[in-house]
Amino acid sequence: MTAGSSIAGLHAVFRRELGSYFTTPxxxxxxxxxAFAAPAFAFNVGRFFDTNRADLAPLFAYxxxxxxxxxxxxxxxxxxxxxxxxTIETLLxxxxxxxxxxxxxxxxxxxxAGLALALTFPMWIAVNYLGAPDNMxxxxxxxxxxxxxxxxxxxxxxxxxxxxxxxxxxxLGVLAAFLLTMAGSPFVTGALSSAVPAWLVEAIxxxxxxxxxxxxQSGVIGVxxxxxxxxxxxxxxxxxxxxxxxxRAGGR
Length: 252
Known about the structure:
Largest sheet: none
Helix content: over 70%
Number of strands: 0
Oligomer: single chain
Distance between the termini: 23 Å
Mean pLDDT: 84
Number of helices: 13
Shape: globular
């Protein structure tokens, strides 16, 4: 199969998936939930107006926890729905490489996630109206949130490829995102320090998505942090493709 036909197949899967989000209420419900929940956390829990600061720190402080729930909800249908409806055989019979199908599904979901983040832009406009924020730092925070959403989506879609039950895929996705987020917390490192070597505790702490996202929150875009998120995105997408490819080879 030529590179041109593979790209055409990727584009076809991307359009199919993106269209499927908006031909059902799923995308609209997801976007509405995000548009309501993100400001609600920032205004009520983060006490946005009480900080007397012209920045989006209250929003970014709670985005990881919101993404940890909503991204698995967006990812759970990727392959589990195909298995449940029996359409996965039709998809895999098309002249589309598995990697292209996996990447196409991921990119479609990532676009929806990007649209959800874009719905919080009025808050960015508001802080510019109220004061003089560091817009470069805010832009870095949004980039970090987009990459974090991509990492959660890729992991969620890989887990979706292991089951035909969307609820199971969602629970597994939330659990994986939670573990990835909490990896560097004192609670986890303290619990592990008495059971595993110090070097392993440190290695696990470095896997913390929250720690990497915090750098973007501060306006710092580091190469190591970019590589971290892109590695999870690439690894999750590749894992989904391998799992689906293995099921095709096994006739399932």
